[in-house]
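Interim report, section 4.2 (structural modelling).
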Amino acid sequence: MLLALCDCNNFFVSCERLYRPELRGRPVVVLSSNDGCIVSRSNEAKTMGIKMGQPYFQVETYLRQNGVVVCSGNLAMYKEISDKVMQTFERFTDTMEVYSIDEAFLRFPKNAEKNAFEYASSIRRTVDRLVGIPISIGIACTKTQAKLASEKAKKISTGVMEITGENVREILDKTAIEDIWGIGRKTAEKLRRYGIATAGAFVLQDPLWVKKELTVRGLATQYELQGRSCIPLETKVPLPKSIQVSRTWGSVLETFEDVWRAMLDNIVKAARQLRDCGLAVGAASVFLRYGKRHSGECGYFTEKLMFKEQILSDIELIAALKKLVDAIYRPGHRYTQGGVVLGAFTQAVYRQRGLFDQEDYERRAKLENVSYTVDAINENAGERVVYPASLGVKNKKWRPNRQFLTAKWSEL
DNA sequence: TCTGGGGTCCTAGGACCC
DNA sequence: TCTGGGGTCCTAGGACCC
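Predicted structure of the assembly:
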């Protein structure tokens, strides 16, 4: 079995360049929500030493002085482009796992295994022609090896790298332990303390020791690097176990009215996701964060609620969570961020119906129909045209900042 | 003035059960 | 003097991923 990890190069920057071809060849960075941190960099920007995750305000002057183009993140746009990339991948396999917005694992068809390199090259050409996004491809027999191969592929001109029985040894010996998928900062530090600095040294360790020190997941990583597949391809999109929507707001909020409006926007977004997944929610929590997170006094309030019966309509969810937000809100704080987390799901169609509540049941069904209808209208319109009046029409000062937005929705 | 947002899985420890 | 063995469920915290 042969797996390929297809990974879009500098994905968000590449998306921006689709709409602004004049940015090709220039240093470009894309910012996270609220123009907070750098989350994508062009190769030119990487060469200049700009770091992933760097706070924008720290490098603002440097970027301006050095002609780096700055873009506010536009996740809705990137998702549309991602969908087109994934659709293109589907031409090349019937067994694929969409791993993230810019990556997918593809199982190569049997007849492609002999000419894997050529097959991968044709995937690259096709995606470039049909979508215009550059990709790198790593080929191997396990996911962990394929991830590693794709990292190596990014550094060579062909954009394709295959790990085989012949070259695996040499590649692992040249790979720092922290560059392995599944080995994070803490684990890498620990392994280095034991004198294990490369992937090549890691695979030689006693599996029992690895399991004891790094748990079963570290063991899986070790096996995968050795070529034993332990992490299966997840071809079906799993239903989420929780849905979280939170935002750092564009300005500090202090009154309950402001905070509630901002939270309402999060709740409506979360509820829409819930219904899109065909789920109903059994428990929810809200949180409010105040103060400056990285200096001075700060903290957060949070509270959780279990529903007697699982619900999914905006109206019911809003009513329940307003009480919760009311319970955690305390005047006199400078609120900067808030969010909602939904959990304890069941599939909406399989919900248990209460025994003694015919009237409630009918009322609930009506509210749910309202929500489904509103979803359909908004889906059709391509954006949110129907929403709770209490959200307000103007004065949305909680909206995250997006100073450098490339395109407005209407122009896409 | 200013540092994102959204997930998953694993483990340990406590409560509780027989 | 001395106090078993086995299990489940829940939660918090840690670690990892994009």
